[in-house]
Amino acid sequence: MSDAPNFDADQWREELESHRAEKDDFFGDHPQSPIPPEEREGFEGLEYFAPDPDYRVTAIVETHDEPDPVEMDVSAGAPQRYLRVATLRFELGGEDHELAAYTRDQQEGLFVPFRDKTTGQQTYQGGRYMEFETEGDLQDGSEITVDFNLAYSPFCAYSETFACPLAPEENWLETEVRAGERDD
Questions:
Q1: CB of 64 closer than 8 Å to CB of 85
Q2: How far lies 98's CA from each of 10, 58, 114, 136, 171, in Å?
Q3: Cα gap 25→6, rounded to integer Å
Q4: CB-CB contact of 107 with 101 (8 Å)
Q5: Per residue in 84-127, pLDDT tens?
Q6: Which residues pair with 182 in a beta bridge?
Q7: For residues 128 and 151, is the Cβ–Cβ distance under 8 A?
Q8: pTM, entire model
Q9: How far apart are the C-alpha atoms of 12 and 142, rounded to whole Å?
Q10: Predicted pLDDT of residue 1
Q11: Which three-class secondary structure string do you get for the chain?
Q12: Each residue of 9-28: pLDDT tens digit?
């Protein structure tokens, strides 16, 4: 469970459920939804793993002063270039893990595509994403909350009209992450 001193599990669960409801509304009604228009009327909401605070962990940030460029394969089309700006180190299920965090075109925040042992079985075959807003510049040794309950499938999971970056091999976790969006 989250080890944050002021963590309120009930409030967290309520906020997560609210976030999921808003996303379902967007997918079902919004003109920019990735759900094809002819399928929106029958859309009943996305599938999610049950909220689990054990998948909300604290990661230690290792920043990269000179970010490495990374070419990510895409579900359709040419690879896209990202910059590996940080490594997030954390413990999940009693084991140590790490994920690379990227930016693109000097955008704010961190983009973390990943695969795990649920990929292609209970979750989208191309992997899932997480995004993190950062306040100011990240520093080595900073802590960031990584909540896998917010992991989501890219738009290309719902429509072939979207081209989405695929998680690079360095972000393939050797564990199951039974949190976030699922694809049953």
A1: yes
A2: 28, 12, 10, 22, 8
A3: 30
A4: no
A5: 999 999 999 999 999 999 998 767 789 999 999 999 999 999 99
A6: 47
A7: yes
A8: 0.91
A9: 22
A10: 47
A11: CCCCCCCCHHHHHHHHHHHHHHHHHHHHHCCCCCCCHHHHCCCCCCEECCCCHHHEEEEEEEEEEEEEEEEECECCCCCEEEEEEEEEEEEECCEEEEEEEEECCCCCCEEEEEECCCECCCECCCCEEEEECCCCCCCCCCEEEEEHHHCECCHHHCCCCCCCECCCHHHECCCCCCCCEECC
A12: 999 999 999 999 999 999 99
d(CA 68, CA 83): 6
pLDDT of 148-183, one tens digit each?
A: 999 999 999 999 899 999 999 999 999 999 999 998
Q: What is the pLDDT of residue 137?
A: 72
CB crowding 35-72: b at 16 or more within 10 Å, else e:
beeeeeeeeeebebbebbbebbbebebbeeeeeeebeb
| Cβ atoms of 123 and 71 closer than 8 Å | no
Matching residue, tokens 């393939």: 172
Encoded tokens for 20 = 């999921």
> So what's the pLDDT on residue 136?
67
Q: Are 55 and 146 in contact (CB under 8 A)?
A: no
Question: 27: closest CA among 147, 152, 179?
Answer: 152
Q: What is the dihedral of CA 159, 163, 168, 169, to 10 degrees?
A: 50
